[in-house]
C-alpha cells in the first residue's frame, strides 16, 4: 500500500483459499482522510448514481397516524406502497425524545474525535462472526478492494450478551448508557413497525413479531464513520449489500446524500434528511413474508467535503430461533425455514458479494 508509512492500521484476520489463517493490516481511513491520501486498495469503480426519477415519491411514514385509529388505514396503505417500492422508508413523529438522539450523536462523535491510540485503549477488537468492537469488517483477502469507512460495533441485546467482552467504549465514559437508552426506545418503535408491516400486507399483525422476545431477541449496534474522501468518484463508503436483519433502524448526522438504493437497476441517492430516521427491510423479513416484502440492495457513497456518521440497529429474533415463510394457505413457498444463527454464519461467510447472494441460502431450490 503506497504512502501509508506514517499512519496507524487495523488488523483483520481471514482464511485464504487454502484454509490458512492470514492477517492483513488495513490503514485507518480516518487518518488517510487527514492526509488526503487514497491508496489503490480503496479504489473502486462504483456504478453511476442517478437522480430520483420524476413522479417517484419517498413519502415519510407518520407514526402518529399509525397510532391513530382514524389515520391508520391510510398510513398502512402508504407503508405497504413505499416498502414494496423502495425496501426502506423514512419515519417521522416517532416519539423518540430529541435529547436521546442528540446524546447518541455526541458520544459517537466524541469517540471518533479521539486520537487513534485512545480509541484503541478505549475498546477492544473481536474478529469473530459479529466483528465486534473497533476495527474493520468483511475483509476476506489481501487484494480485496476496501470500503472508505471506520466502524464500531456492539451487541446491545440480549442482556449480558457482551459480558466478558471489551466492546463498549469506556471513552466517552457515558457511551454505553447513552446507547442503551436509545436502543430501548428504538426497540419499542421497531416492534410497532413489525406489526404495522404485517398488517400493511394483509397478514395477522403478529406474523413477524411472533419471532421476537424481549429477553432473547438480538439488537446489534453498528456505528459507521465515513470521513471526507479525496476521490468520491473512485471509492465506496460501503459496498452494495442487503442487511442480515429483520429491520435495520438508521440515524445519520454530519451530512446526508450518502445512502443509495438500487431501484429498477439504477443506483439512486435516497432523499433522506439528517433530521429523520430510516428503516431498512432486511433478509429475514423477506423470508418471513415469503417474498411479499424484499430486503433492499443498498450501498453508501463517500463525499469530498464533509464527514458522515450513521448509527444502525440490526433487529433480529434469537440466534437459535427457526423462522419461515408465512403459513397463510399460499401453496407456493419461495423460501424455506432457516435458523437465524445458521443464516447469519452463511451471511458473514459469503459477504461481500456482487449480487444479492446471501438470501439464496433460504430460497426453495
Automatic annotation (TrEMBL):
<keyword id="KW-0560">Oxidoreductase</keyword>
<dbReference type="InterPro" id="IPR027443">
    <property type="entry name" value="IPNS-like_sf"/>
</dbReference>
<comment type="similarity">
    <text>Belongs to the iron/ascorbate-dependent oxidoreductase family.</text>
</comment>
<keyword id="KW-0408">Iron</keyword>
<dbReference type="InterPro" id="IPR050295">
    <property type="entry name" value="Plant_2OG-oxidoreductases"/>
</dbReference>
<dbReference type="GO" id="GO:0009805">
    <property type="term" value="P:coumarin biosynthetic process"/>
</dbReference>
<keyword id="KW-0479">Metal-binding</keyword>
<dbReference type="InterPro" id="IPR026992">
    <property type="entry name" value="DIOX_N"/>
</dbReference>
<dbReference type="GO" id="GO:0002238">
    <property type="term" value="P:response to molecule of fungal origin"/>
</dbReference>
<dbReference type="GO" id="GO:0046872">
    <property type="term" value="F:metal ion binding"/>
</dbReference>
<feature type="domain" description="Fe2OG dioxygenase">
    <location>
        <begin position="216"/>
        <end position="317"/>
    </location>
</feature>
<dbReference type="Pfam" id="PF03171">
    <property type="entry name" value="2OG-FeII_Oxy"/>
</dbReference>
<dbReference type="Pfam" id="PF14226">
    <property type="entry name" value="DIOX_N"/>
</dbReference>
<dbReference type="InterPro" id="IPR044861">
    <property type="entry name" value="IPNS-like_FE2OG_OXY"/>
</dbReference>
<dbReference type="GO" id="GO:0016706">
    <property type="term" value="F:2-oxoglutarate-dependent dioxygenase activity"/>
</dbReference>
<protein>
    <recommendedName>
        <fullName>Fe2OG dioxygenase domain-containing protein</fullName>
    </recommendedName>
</protein>
<dbReference type="InterPro" id="IPR005123">
    <property type="entry name" value="Oxoglu/Fe-dep_dioxygenase_dom"/>
</dbReference>
Amino acid at each position: 500500500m503506497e504512502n501509508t508509512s506514517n499512519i496507524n492500521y487495523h488488523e483483520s484476520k481471514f482464511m485464504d483459499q487454502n484454509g490458512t489463517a492470514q492477517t492483513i493490516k488495513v490503514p485507518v481511513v480516518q487518518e488517510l482522510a487527514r492526509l488526503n491520501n487514497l491508496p489503490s486498495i480503496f479504489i473502486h469503480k462504483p456504478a453511476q448514481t442517478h437522480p430520483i426519477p420524476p413522479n417517484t415519491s419517498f413519502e415519510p411514514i407518520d407514526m402518529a397516524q399509525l397510532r391513530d385509529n382514524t389515520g391508520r388505514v391510510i398510513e398502512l396503505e402508504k407503508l405497504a406502497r413505499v416498502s414494496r417500492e423502495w425496501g426502506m422508508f423514512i419515519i417521522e413523529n416517532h416519539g423518540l425524545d430529541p435529547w436521546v438522539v442528540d446524546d447518541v450523536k455526541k458520544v459517537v462523535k466524541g469517540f471518533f474525535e479521539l486520537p487513534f491510540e485512545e480509541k484503541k485503549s478505549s475498546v477492544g477488537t473481536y474478529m469473530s462472526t459479529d466483528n465486534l468492537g473497533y476495527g474493520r469488517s468483511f475483509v476476506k483477502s489481501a487484494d480485496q478492494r476496501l470500503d472508505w469507512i471506520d466502524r464500531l460495533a456492539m451487541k446491545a441485546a440480549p442482556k449480558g450478551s457482551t459480558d466478558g467482552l471489551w466492546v463498549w467504549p469506556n471513552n466517552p465514559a457515558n457511551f454505553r448508557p447513552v446507547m442503551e437508552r436509545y436502543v430501548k426506545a428504538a426497540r419499542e418503535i421497531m416492534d410497532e413497525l413489525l406489526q404495522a408491516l404485517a398488517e400493511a400486507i394483509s397478514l395477522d399483525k403478529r406474523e413477524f413479531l411472533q419471532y421476537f422476545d424481549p429477553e432473547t431477541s438480538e439488537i446489534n449496534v453498528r456505528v459507521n464513520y465515513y470521513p471526507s474522501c479525496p476521490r468520491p468518484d473512485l471509492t465506496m463508503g460501503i459496498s452494495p449489500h442487503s442487511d442480515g436483519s429483520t429491520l435495520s433502524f438508521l440515524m445519520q448526522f454530519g451530512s446526508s446524500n450518502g445512502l443509495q438504493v438500487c431501484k429498477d437497476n439504477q443506483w439512486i441517492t435516497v432523499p433522506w434528511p439528517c433530521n429523520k430516521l430510516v428503516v431498512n427491510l432486511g433478509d429475514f423479513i423477506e423470508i418471513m413474508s415469503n417474498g411479499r416484502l424484499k430486503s433492499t440492495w443498498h450501498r453508501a457513497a463517500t463525499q469530498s467535503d464533509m464527514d458522515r456518521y450513521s448509527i444502525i440497529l440490526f433487529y433480529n429474533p434469537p440466534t437459535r430461533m427457526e423462522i419461515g415463510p408465512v403459513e397463510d394457505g399460499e401453496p407456493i413457498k419461495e423460501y424455506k425455514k432457516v435458523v437465524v444463527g445458521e443464516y447469519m454464519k452463511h451471511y458473514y461467510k459469503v459477504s461481500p458479494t456482487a449480487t444479492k447472494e446471501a438470501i439464496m441460502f433460504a430460497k426453495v431450490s
